Hints:
Layout: H1 2-16, H2 28-41, H3 44-60, H4 64-84, H5 92-109, H6 115-135, H7 143-170, H8 173-195
Helix pairs in contact: 1-7, 2-7, 3-4, 3-5, 3-7, 3-8, 4-6, 4-7, 5-6, 5-8, 7-8
Organism: Rhizobium anhuiense
Keywords: Membrane, Signal, Transmembrane, Transmembrane helix
Protein name: Urease accessory protein
Amino acid sequence: MKSALKSGLLALAAAALPAAAYAHPAIGEAAGFSHGFAHPISGLDHVLAMVMVGVFAFQLGGRATWLVPTTFVLVMALGGVLGATGVNIPFVETGIALSVVVLGAIVALNVKAPLAATLGIIGLFAIFHGHAHGAEMPENAAGAAYAAGFMIATALLHAAGLTLGYLIGRAGERQGLFVTRTAGGIAAISGVGILAGLI
């Protein structure tokens, strides 16, 4: 179990670390991609939500394993377009914080929601995350490259969540469930802290 948890944490850390190149100025396509890639991994709220999406997808299993993360990435891209074009969506930051609370609670409670309801919830939260990415796109960034960056970073965080769920699952049903619920609970509590402005 220790080995599985260690591997999962290493995978999560690797996905969450921005590359050193992001500290250097760039223009056009390079600036677009690097800024886009760095954005989802630069905030605790985004990282926690993305990883919880991956763990949730693993818990659901079957088609949800790929449908949940794919839906999130695609709908997030739509939210990114809305943000980049200046379309206003109210309570974006609140929606992002709530996504951490809700997704963490879903993972902690091992909720087995119907796939349609799951995709609806995932899509709603993806709009908020995508809007934030699009609205914060630097002026000198190339739009398509920026979008590709934040979509790839998000997919990698989902993959880290799926990997974490898989490794936890291999640790044993009883122990794995405890670890998963603990991880979800920590994420949910962190989301409350973000929502309250304490984190």
